[in-house]
Amino acid sequence: MSTSDGDRSKDAIAIYQGLLDLMGRAITHRDFDAYSAYVALPHYIETEGSALMIETRDQLSAVFNDICDRLARIDIDGLTRHCLSATFTAPDQITGTHITWQVTRSNAIQESYKVHSVLTRGAGIWQVASGTYTGDTDTLPCSMSRSLREVGARPVPTRQHPCTGQPGPSSGPKASDR
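User: That's the sequence. What structure does it adopt?
Assistant: Structure tokens below.
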């Protein structure tokens, strides 16, 4: 790993974007095993008005299937995701923000939203530990939140990341940042 701040920032962005690309391909190909390899459990999710904890692989699978089903219903061919910023907050932790565009088969953008994520590395693998999603209440993230509640994901307080005990992802982008 490079030692200069500029190189470390580039490294963080490259890792974050690489993870976005891997997870996006897994969603496009409806490959839960590939997707789940890059999601840390427990996994903290925050959307407008709710925060939930995915604690089991079954919960993650239910949400993954719901995401894929929703994308298919609204004719989404893929997700275009772009890392806007990323920084190392510890040797094995990256905090960053990306934007997601849902693109239809005719290349129209269906919806977009920003996500503030915390990535952690364990056993040499980078995984998403948490995500705070900003967007309107009818976007994919809010639908995901509803699905999580249906499969028994545990509601948790916002403002403190339950895995790290640090200020949570809600200290990231606010609705006014959209």
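The chain has one domain: 5-177.
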